[in-house]
Amino acid sequence: MSDTHVPARGEDEPEQLREQFRQLLRYRWLISGGIGVGLLAGAWLGITGADSYAATTDVVLRAPTSDPFAPTLSSDKAINMGSERQTALSRKVAEGAAKRLGIGADGVDRLQHGLQVTNPPQTLVLHFTYTAADPKQAARRANALTQSYIDLRKEQWEAVRGSMLKSLQDQLNPVAKQNDELARQIKALPNGSAADSAYAVQANLLNRITDLRGKITSLKALDMTPGNVIRNATVPPSSDGPGLPLSLGLGGLVGVGLGLLGAWVRLVFDPAPRSAGDVARAVRGPVLGALPRGSAGTLVVGHTDSRAAEEYRSIAFRLAYDERFADRRRLLVVAPRGSMESSVAVAVNLAASFAETGKNVLLVEADLRTPSLSERLDVSAAFRPHWSRTSEHAEGEWPGRGQLVVDAGESGAFGLVAGERVRNVPRALTSARTTRLIAEADDPDATVVVVAPPVLAYADALALVDRVDGVLIVCDPRTVHRADLVRIRELIVGAGGTVLGAVTHTESKRSEAGTSARRGNGRRAVQSPAARTAPPSPRPEPDRHLDGDGSDTVALRTLRSGDR
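Now predict its structure.
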């Protein structure tokens, strides 16, 4: 079979998105948790924001200049807005505002904490915002901080100008003194070359004096105003918060995003197969069928109105048209690990499906550790087809009780070789008698279905792979890891077998609870061969329950000793 159920790369993007969204919904608890966190954060923001008021002021900055109308003046190059913003947020500004407001030194930190200063892009404007619980206090503190910043910047500019004036004056004083002394010397010199040389030196000194006095005059003429307040803070009429309804809405949207992000991360790192395509890629074989929810542990073949019965028929037909299975008609049904409930149910229902098509089917229970099929099925030794008769065997070999007949209702009947407890399981599974038993499939009209313990729990299935080379893996994608499926395929291929495909199922909570109850009650001990050959008493009516689609099905159950 070439069908592998692996999604093609050319699959439509909307279908891929729908599949991914369905996979994300597997983690509803993460999405719900994200929404809950978002709503809590929104509620907190709405409640705390209802008692906060924000007052704002705007200050346009300017550099010191003697001619504010000069067209060549470029204040944006003289002022670094990033540095000015940090200055406005500094503790020095907060201390000056605290003095204006009459706040002690211990309140400077609280005053500084409520201030926020921003700079709109491509402007020389500083935007002061102060947030407080009282609207009047917010306006008063915003104005005080703004004025403190302006005063601090003016004080800093004036300190720079005073330092520069002092430096220029210190340079001017010795030059002026030297000029005065030279002037007195020139008066005493006669006309001639000496006087001409003295006049040249005096001219240089006068030029130097003129330059220094010009710089001093320019500095004294500078306008040292650091900026102008273009908007004073007023009492805010309403709170600054977005309000409780809006906060809850925003929190819910953010929570949905967080929940989806968490679900996506969980999905990426989830070791379990996310879809049938993941299972197919892991086992490198097709997913032959997906059983309806809660139907993996029921005997449903023979009930034409059952969805599960039709699914088993579909699996059987797909196997029948697979050349790898049709050539030898040997099928090994196994589960990855854990319980055999699902693999046993699939093996029994497939055996009944093959019997329904007219095949002589032999179901072999290769579970020699905890056998239970003969106790859970409607079996009888009254009728044995010619192909199911076996010769005498040595004591202690398996099978030792002969072959039973299972009544599958409308599907007919099929043979059953029940498992038995033996001391040496590997020797019993690799014995010549087991080989002859599986060789029943050499008959053109015969099919052998073998069910073995989980592959990753025991090596029993691998001991049978060389004779039953067609393997069907039964798994619940929610409880198995992709690495487990890859490991099973490697083990089967390494033992010389072939993975024909997989069957997936999903147990309902009610079915899982019933399985747990059956495990808790334990299995009844295997009867002796003499007891099994006794004339059968009237069989009890099988337990019935509703399948996933509401149809009546027959459940695999453990019969009481009184029912036998």
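The chain is about 45% helix and 15% strand.
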